[in-house]
Each structure stands twice: as C-alpha cells, then as structure tokens.
C-alpha cells in the first residue's frame, strides 16, 4: 500500500476555531469546528461543510485532521458541524434524515454564507450519513449551496441503505441500528458545554429514542423512506454532484443511477475501495482525492476552469482477477471511462441456463429445485466493507453444498464487465413468501471462487417495492433481479459461476417459513454488462498521489482485543454462530486530553433447518474520561425473527462516574409484513 504524503506547507496559512456556536431559528445552538485561512477576513473564501452526528470532538477527529486543514490551506473554510442532539450540539436527534436535520442544515448554510470570512458560496462534502444529507439538502435548493461531493451514499433510503435489500429485512437493520443508538446516547464534552453537560446528556438518554424501532415498524416503501430519497424526484437536485464510492463498499449502485437520472452537472468515481475516503481507503490503489476535490471546488465554488467539467462523466476501476481474501492491501486493475451513463461502450452478454451449466447456447427445458439451509451465505462477509478490516467475502467454495450452481466452461477469451449484472428467471415457490439470492463468482482453474456480485430479492417485491404481493404457491412466474454493480475482468481459463439460494445469512434475515424454489432453466438467463476496452480509456491522465494534512496525534493506553470475525458450529445441536468483535482499546487525544474507549460485538445465531431460530444480538460499550469527568454507556439490542413477529429487546445503562443514571429495558414486537 502506497504511503500518504503529508503536506505541512500550504499556499495559505491555516488557523483553527476549536468550537464555534451556530444559532438555529428556534434558539438551539449547533457546535462547529472550523479551519480557515488566517487572512480569510481580508480575502473571504468559500465554505465546505461536513454535517454529521458522529462527534467532531472525538468521533471523526482523525479523519477531520487529514481533510479540513488541507482544504483551508488551499483557500477554503473547512466546517465540521455536529447535528442537533449529537456531539456537542444542543437539542434532540430523533432519527435519521428527518426534516429537522435538513432545516437545521439550511440554517447552517445561510449562516456560513453571511460570515465575513466566507465568500458567500458553500459546498457540502460527506461520506455515508454526510453523503446522504448532502444530496438531501441539495434537493432543498438553498441559494448559497453551489456543489456537493457525496461519498458512499444513496439516492434510495428504502432499497439501497442498511434497512431492506430487495424487500428483505437486512441484518444491518440491527447492527447499524445498535451503532446509531449508541452514538445518539453519548454525552457532550464538558470543556465545550460546561456544567450543563449532564443535563444535555440526560435529555438525549431520555429523548433521542431507539431509531431502529421505526425501521422495523416501516417495512414497506412508504413516506417514511420516500422522505430523503432523491430518487423520488431527481429533478430536485440541480447543482453539480460528484458521486464517489468503491466496489468493496455497500453503496456503489446509486452512483450509476445518479449519473443516469440527475439533470445537472454530475460526475462519478468508483475505485476498489471500501467505506472510506479514497486518499486513505483500502483496498488500494489510493488516489489524490483531496486534490480531485479541490479541482471540483475550484470549478464550482470559485469559477476557475480546472477542466474537470470537460472530463468523462464516469471513471471506474476494472478489477483484475484476485483470489478470494477477507482483506486486500490493493486490487490490481486499471481505470476506464465512459462519457455518459448508460455507457455507450457497454453491451450485453447473455448466458442461458441448462442444468448446472451457463452458456451462450440455447437453454435446456429442465426444472431444478433449491431449498437452502438457513446458514447459506456465511462466506459473504459484511454488506458494507470498510476495507481496513477483514470483512470481505471469502472463498465461495464453502457454499457449494448450500446453493444451486450454474457454471460456464473455461473461458476461451477474456471479458470485462462494468455495470449491473441481471438474472432473469422463471420460477415457482411452494410458499407465499420466499427469498431468491443470486451470487456471481469468478472461478479459478484450481477451483477457488471469488464473489464478484450478488443480488437478493424478497419475491413479494418481484414487481416493485410498491406493488407487493405474495407468490401463489406452485405458480411459475418470470422474475428479474438486478445484482450489485461491479467492474471486473475475467481471464482465459476461468469460469463464470451463478449460485442460487433461498437464504443469505447474515446479510438478510430469513423468511418466516422455509421455502423451496423451482427454477425453470429453459426460460432463465444471466445478462452480463460486457465492456470491451475503449479508446477513451487511453486518454485518461493519472490521478495524483494521495495527500493529506498532518495526522492527529494520539496516545494508545490499551490496545484492546482488535478485530475478530469468526464462524462456529455446535456439532451436537447444529446451531451456527457468526460473531464480529471490534475492540479499539483505550486512546487519549492530546489536543483535548480526552480518553475514549469503545468495544462492540455483533453475534448472530441460527439453526440451518429453522428460519425462526434466527437471533441477532449487538452490544456497544463506550467510555469518555478526563480527570474527574467519567461517562460510561452500554447498549444491547436483540432481534428475534419469529414466525409472526419481529421481536426487539433493548437494554441501556449509563453512568456518570459511579452513579447509575439510566438503566432501562424494553421489548417491542412488530408484525412481519411479507418478509
């Protein structure tokens, strides 16, 4: 992995404002950290806003140190704001992407544009939550907001986020739900808010709520998810959008949709990366992403022609074959480009199904059945890979007894694909509610199989997410499932594999009943987005090398247990446990003298023969410490996939030193709605 060049000498000297209060119309104050040129009062600069609930004081502090001073040194004000009810800001945060969150952001942008050190132009940058709300706020059209850089984000809150995948209940609904709950319950820093920190904390503990309960209550694509989904009306977003992501991340799909559907200036960049900024992401290669951002900001916030507006709309990394591994330092491959999307250089390669065979010949009229054990999918890794931890899919050979396999003969010529593979299948189900999982893999001559893409469909959602209806048992229908987008090269001698299953654990929870699907081979086909090399690829200039501002100093007081991911099976009972432990140890931040510690465990258990045995339990333990100030938080959430209901059990404790201030348990049930 290449090093990141640390830049200390910038065109403009930088000063930092550790905390600055931004007033909201209702009197609530939001806490901001600001980096800007020392001479910005005399020579005002555009502001670049990152707006998050992830605690500017300690949560994103390492990333912020790499990024915002760099922007400031090049003539911008880097502004990192804690959302209402989070970090050091006042008020309550009752959920994701609420109208209140957007309204506050509109007020922040208006306030920034009025500051004497600001030129009146504002951009928004963010990854994940910050990428989401950049798009959502752009759709509200505040006059001062001129451009957005949105990383690892979505245009569709229902079907391309952590909640539902093809209408199936995602296990991330619990994992992220517990993480978000823990974040929402953390205290502000007394050095920022003073003695009222305890009152503000108790307001959060009693008022911010458990957001995942909303996600289990809303199991369909209703107004809850339509709000904040710019795919409901892409024309709402008129300003330039730079959409960025990676193949190892959970959010590559929206990039292609936004390139196709947005009407204003837009650009897409997809590398091999996980859920991180590309100047420090894994797998590599890393790029000079901050320099790329400056070209975007200079173009649209300062009116300087950097040439970025004239470059191809999409730049994507075509990955070369790599043996399966849970983590990679780098993925070999090459950059390619398309002038628009759908790409004029992308065609279709159709592979028809015969029993256990994929070929360009005519399909064979045969019916094959599949009823997977509930443990099918354990090789899939995390839905959203962060790259820096070993969470990527492992060898798919471990799934061969769980799935129905269709495979090509060894390829006689290399092919490259870019875009969305699709699977069109005629099938029937013996149950009204069933899952179809389709996994695309690259099989090496010695047999190792690397997952390239996959798709999951709750067959009740086979028409779309609004026209939901159960299957008629025994009645065959033609269904089309779009797999996750990808960019991949297949070499001569390798095989292309399609694996079908009726479960995909622990990416999604199982349906309430074990189903058997009957696959009609003769009427089914795999459609690959094949892309031959294009002349445009050879015109691309190389990205600059990765750069950043000076990394933040920190003192490791205790290393913790690090990261562990294990699968174990009790051979006597058959119960299988998938567990992830992430213990970051204890760290002191010298710039604030705050000591922080965090540990979380995700544990999922299931019996291969019983979908109602599926149980997920997630825990978080966090502590904050400085001198006499000691705050500790523990949260635990369990979801049980029972036949008729989703049962959610939660427990939270919070301590101020040795004083227990919250100890609360709750059990709620939500009827299963065709999932």
UniProtKB/TrEMBL annotation:
Molecular function terms from GO: hydrolase activity
InterPro entries in the record: AB_hydrolase_fold (IPR029058), CocE/Ser_esterase (IPR005674), Galactose-bd-like_sf (IPR008979), Xaa-Pro-like_dom (IPR000383), Xaa-Pro_dipept_C (IPR013736), Xaa-Pro_dipeptidyl-ppase/CocE (IPR050585)
Annotated protein name in UniProt: CocE/NonD family hydrolase
Domain of life of the organism encoding this protein: Bacteria
Cited PANTHER family: COCE_NOND FAMILY, PUTATIVE (AFU_ORTHOLOGUE AFUA_7G00600)-RELATED (PTHR43056:SF10), PEPTIDASE S9 PROLYL OLIGOPEPTIDASE (PTHR43056)
Lineage of producing organism: Bacteria, Pseudomonadati, Pseudomonadota, Alphaproteobacteria, Hyphomicrobiales
Species per Swiss-Prot/TrEMBL record: Mesorhizobium cantuariense
UniProt keywords, alphabetically: Hydrolase
Record-linked Pfam families: Peptidase_S15, PepX_C
Domain Xaa-Pro dipeptidyl-peptidase C-terminal: 294-527
SMART domains in alphabetical order: PepX_C (SM00939)
């Amino acid at each position: 992995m290449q090093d990141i060049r640390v830049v200390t000498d910038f065109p403009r000297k930088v000063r930092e404002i550790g905390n600055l209060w931004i007033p909201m119309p209702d009197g609530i104050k939001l806490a901001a950290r600001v980096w800007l040129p020392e001479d910005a009062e005399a020579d005002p600069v555009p502001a670049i806003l990152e707006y998050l609930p992830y605690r500017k004081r300690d949560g994103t502090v390492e990333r912020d140190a790499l990024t915002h001073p760099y922007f400031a040194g090049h003539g911008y004000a880097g502004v990192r704001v804690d959302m209402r009810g989070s970090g050091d800001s006042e008020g309550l945060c009752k959920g994701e992407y609420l109208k209140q969150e957007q309204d506050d952001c509109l007020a922040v942008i208006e306030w920034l544009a009025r500051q004497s050190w600001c030129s009146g132009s504002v951009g928004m940058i963010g990854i994940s939550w910050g990428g989401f709300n950049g798009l959502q706020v752009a759709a509200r059209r505040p006059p001062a907001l001129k451009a957005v850089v949105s990383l690892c984000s979505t245009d569709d809150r229902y079907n391309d986020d952590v909640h539902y995948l093809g209408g199936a209940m995602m296990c991330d609904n619990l994992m992220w739900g517990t993480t978000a709950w823990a974040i929402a319950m953390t205290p502000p820093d007394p050095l920022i808010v003073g003695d009222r920190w305890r009152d503000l904390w108790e307001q959060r503990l009693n008022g911010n709520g458990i957001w995942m309960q909303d996600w289990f209550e809303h199991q369909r694509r209703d107004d809850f998810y339509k709000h904040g989904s710019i795919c409901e009306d892409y024309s709402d977003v008129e300003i330039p959008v730079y959409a960025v992501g990676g193949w190892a991340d959970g959010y590559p799909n929206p990039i292609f949709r936004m390139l196709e559907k947005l009407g204003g200036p837009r650009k897409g960049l997809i590398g091999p990366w996980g859920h991180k900024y590309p100047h420090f992401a894994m797998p590599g290669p890393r790029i000079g992403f901050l320099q790329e951002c400056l070209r975007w900001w200079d173009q649209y916030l300062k009116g300087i022609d950097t040439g970025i507006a004239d470059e191809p709309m999409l730049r994507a990394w075509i990955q070369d074959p790599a043996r399966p591994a849970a983590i990679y330092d780098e993925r070999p491959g090459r950059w390619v480009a398309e002038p628009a999307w759908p790409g004029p250089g992308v065609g279709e390669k159709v592979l028809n199904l015969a029993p256990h065979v994929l070929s360009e010949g005519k399909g064979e009229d045969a019916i094959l059945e599949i009823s997977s054990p509930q443990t099918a999918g354990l090789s899939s890794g995390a839905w959203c890979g962060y790259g820096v931890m070993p969470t990527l899919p492992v060898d798919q050979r471990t799934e061969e007894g769980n799935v129905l396999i269709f495979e090509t003969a060894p390829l006689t010529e290399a092919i490259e694909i870019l875009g969305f593979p699709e699977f069109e299948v005629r099938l029937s189900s013996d149950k009204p509610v069933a899952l179809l999982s389709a996994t695309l893999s690259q099989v090496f001559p010695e047999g190792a199989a690397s997952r390239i893409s996959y798709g999951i469909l709750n067959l009740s959602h086979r028409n779309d997410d609004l026209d939901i209806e159960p299957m008629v048992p025994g009645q065959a229908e033609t269904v089309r499932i779009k797999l996750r987008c990808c960019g991949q090269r297949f070499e001569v001698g390798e095989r292309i594999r399609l694996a079908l299953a009726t479960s995909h654990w622990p990416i999604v929870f199982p349906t309430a009943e074990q189903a058997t699907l009957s696959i009609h081979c003769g009427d089914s086909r795999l459609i690959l987005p094949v892309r031959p090399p294009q002349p445009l690829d050879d015109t691309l200039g190389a990205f600059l090398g990765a750069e950043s501002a000076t990394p933040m100093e920190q003192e490791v007081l205790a290393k913790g247990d690090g990261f562990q991911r294990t699968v174990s099976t009790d051979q006597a009972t058959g119960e299988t446990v998938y567990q992830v432990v992430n213990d970051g140890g204890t760290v002191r931040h010298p710039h604030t003298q705050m000591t922080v510690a965090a540990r979380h465990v995700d544990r999922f258990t299931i019996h291969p023969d019983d979908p109602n045995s599926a149980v997920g339990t997630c825990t978080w333990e966090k502590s904050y410490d400085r001198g006499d100030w000691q705050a500790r938080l523990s949260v635990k959430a369990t979801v049980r996939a029972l036949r008729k209901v989703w049962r959610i059990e939660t427990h939270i404790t919070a301590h101020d030193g040795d004083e227990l201030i919250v100890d609360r348990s709750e059990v709620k049930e939500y009827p299963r709605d065709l999932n």
